[in-house]
Design a protein that fits this description.
Blueprint lengths: L10 E5 L5 H10 L3 E5 L15 E3 L3 H6 L3 E4 L31 E7 L4 E6 L4 E6 L6 E5 L3 E6 L4 E6 L4 E6 L6 E5 L13 E6 L5 E5 L4 E5 L7 E5 L13 E6 L5 E5 L4 E5 L7 E5 L13 E6 L4 E6 L4 E6 H4 L1
Parallel strand pairs: 1-2, 1-4, 2-3
Antiparallel strand pairs: 5-6, 6-7, 7-8, 9-10, 10-11, 11-12, 13-14, 14-15, 15-16, 17-18, 18-19, 19-20, 21-22, 22-23
């Protein structure tokens, strides 16, 4: 049994509805709390569509970013009393069959089709894995994919680490449009060198961790070249430099947060800044509470907490940005 006692108004996010979430959320709504719900299964959200105090999140980040408390509910496939959850993609060993993956590097939730879109890097394909008993399908082939993201209009963006480019695809189509790079490997403003992680904003500007150029690039919609928004002054550990940047996040003020993998730190670059602020790590590679070891993906919430995938420490860390200032 789950018991949540709140003595004041609170905003609460449900990541998944599961077997108990509907009744728990209903009770919280009756107590005048603001509730945000997300579930990959649209039918699980039907109960909440007519309730005024409920916000239905279109992506998981909305349920997390706008909530003081997060409730993670087990999916309906994870039955009470068992110790196993449902594998939703892969799980049949490393391979290239339709029910296998080989070094999956990124995933996007496509709520409209109730499925996951997975970058199956070493099989050079992007796959769609529907929920339930529907079979997976390959939606893109012969692509050295690494990073994925999706914009508000449901265009899929894929980074290609062989062609040093980022392409935009309309779901269901196999011919994409180059939106960044595509001019060979290099460090020119119209080039990329091992683009991996991506972020797209509401204006369809694409932010790219241009890893081997040790910089983060911003390519505005229909641009012919990008803008350096972080790093780009050779590899190094100075405030003006990055080393093998990984995950990126951009807030509503266009402030860029980047996992500076080679320097074991997280940097923040305000819009138009020529150098960044170190907000996490920077104390050498290690497993201490103030250390990171090759940070990868990251995200932020509305309370200025930053969540970092601490790759070589096999953990996810949370830091308060306000406390690091």
């Amino acid at each position: 049994m789950v018991h949540l006692s709140l003595t004041r108004y609170a905003s609460i996010g449900f990541f998944g509805i599961g077997n108990m979430g509907k009744h728990m959320a209903t009770n919280l709504i009756a107590a005048n709390h603001q509730v945000t719900v997300f579930d990959i299964n649209p039918q699980a959200l039907d109960h909440f569509k007519e309730q005024k105090q409920v916000k239905i999140a279109s992506v998981p980040q909305e349920a997390v970013a706008n909530s003081e408390f997060i409730i993670l509910m087990l999916p309906n496939e994870w039955k009470s009393g068992t110790n196993r959850c449902q594998v939703v993609a892969g799980g049949k060993g490393e391979g290239n069959k339709m029910d296998q993956l080989k070094c999956a590097t990124d995933v996007v939730v496509d709520k409209e089709t109730d499925s996951l879109i997975v970058c199956d890097r070493d099989n050079r394909r992007v796959m769609r894995w529907p929920r339930g008993k529907r079979k997976p399908e390959t939606i893109l082939t012969n692509i050295a994919c690494y990073g994925l993201t999706m914009d508000d209009q449901k265009f899929l963006y894929v980074s290609d680490i062989e062609n040093h480019s980022v392409k935009k695809y309309r779901l269901g189509e196999t011919k994409g449009t180059i939106v960044a790079g595509g001019n060979g490997k290099g460090n020119g403003l119209n080039q990329l060198n091992l683009p991996i992680y991506l972020y797209v904003d509401r204006d369809q500007s694409v932010y790219i961790s241009d890893t081997h150029n040790h910089r983060v690039m911003k390519w505005m919609k229909d641009a012919k070249e990008g803008i350096v928004v972080a790093g780009g002054r050779n590899q190094g550990d100075k405030p003006t430099q990055l080393s093998l940047p990984q995950g990126i996040f951009v807030d509503h003020l266009s402030t860029v947060y980047v996992a500076d993998g080679g320097n074991h730190r997280v940097m923040r670059w305000h819009k138009g800044a020529t150098q960044g602020d170190m907000i996490v790590g920077g104390n050498g590679a290690g497993a201490g509470p103030n250390q990171l070891n090759c940070p990868g993906g990251l995200s932020l919430d509305q309370h200025e907490n930053i969540y970092v995938v601490d790759y070589n420490n096999h953990r996810v860390q949370r830091f308060s940005i306000e406390a690091t200032n």
